[in-house]
Amino acid sequence: PAGTQNVNPTIQSQSATATGINVGVDLSYMFVPHIGAGAFMRYISGSVDLDSAPNLKAGGFQVGLGGRFRF
Question: Which of helix, strand or coil describes residue 41?
Answer without folding.
Answer: strand
